[in-house]
Structures are given as C-alpha cells and as structure tokens.
Amino acid sequence: MATGGPLWPGAARRPGTARRPGAARRLGTALGAGLLMTACAGPGAAGPRGTPSPTAAPPEVLCARIVAHWSREVLDGGTYGDYQSMGLSNGQYDILRSVVDAARTAKKREGARAADELIGRQSRESCAARYRAGGPDGGPWQ
C-alpha cells in the first residue's frame, strides 16, 4: 500500500500512514446503513436482534410505579418528604398519603407482606382511576 495523499481532497494525512483503498467507503456504507435502519424504525419496531424497541409507559403505569416506590420508602422510613423532590404531582402525592395510611394499618394488623401487596394494588387502582379520563384536570400539578 502506498503512503501519501489524503483520503479526500483538502484532508491532511499523518506522515507514515498508509492509504487503504475502500476502507473509508466500507465504513461510510456501514454507518449509512445503520443510520438508515435507525431512522426507519418507528415506535414498536424491532431493534437489534429482533428485540422490540422501548416504548413510553402510559401515565397510569408510571404513576403506579412511582407512588408504590415512594409509599414503600415512606412506610419503612416513617416520614414524608416533599412531593416535588419525589417527582410527584400534588394529586399523586394525595394518592401516596392514602396508600401509606392504609399500608400502615395493614402492616400492624397483617404484617409487612400484606402491607406491600396493598401498596401495589392500591397504587395501581388509584392511579388507574386518576388517569382514566386521559389525565388530571386543573393544571399540571393537580
């Protein structure tokens, strides 16, 4: 292989590097194909190796996850934090307080496992009811 000129006009070549004909073309083709595949994949399209691409979870599912998480934290820690620092809206925080109150009662009567199950169930049910009509009313923090 010859040493010498740049890969394209105006490009500088480091001294002592050999030009490999076709290497840049193959790299460009591979990158272009990857970009094309990425750009053409829409929501739900198969990703690498046939795995489905991630999709956004519905708001009621996200609500249930975050309310259940913080409910367990509050139940174990015994104290409430600021709803904004938890990433909750005011309405989600209302759900959390209701869930934690019920979980505390269940924990005293039936134990930690019953409280954990109640947190999961009540978080899902309350968040589903909250988002049933497509979202909360009264502003972004309601």
Structure description:
By secondary structure, the chain is mainly α. It has a domain at 77-129. 54% of the residues lie in helices and 0% in strands. The protein is built from 4 helices and no strands. It has helices spanning 23-40, 59-77, 90-110, 112-130. Helix 2 crosses helix 3, helix 2 runs antiparallel to helix 4 and helix 3 (90-110) packs antiparallel against helix 4. It is globular, with a radius of gyration of 27 Å. The N and C termini lie far apart (69 Å). The model is unreliable at 30-42 (pLDDT under 50).
Brief synopsis:
The protein has 142 residues and is mainly α.
Summary tags:
0% strand, 142 residues, mainly alpha
Rg estimate, integer Å: 27 Å
Q: Which range best describes the helical content: under 10%, 10-25%, 25-40%, 40-55%, 55-70% or over 70%?
A: 40-55%
Let me know the average pLDDT. 75
Secondary-structure-based class equals: mainly alpha
- CA-to-CA gap between the ends? 69 Å
* Total helical elements: 4
Number of strand elements: 0
- pLDDT below 50 for ≥5 consecutive residues: which ranges? 30-42
Shape assignment: globular
Beta fraction = under 5%
Q: Tell me the series of helices and strands, N- to C-terminal.
A: HHHH
Largest sheet: none
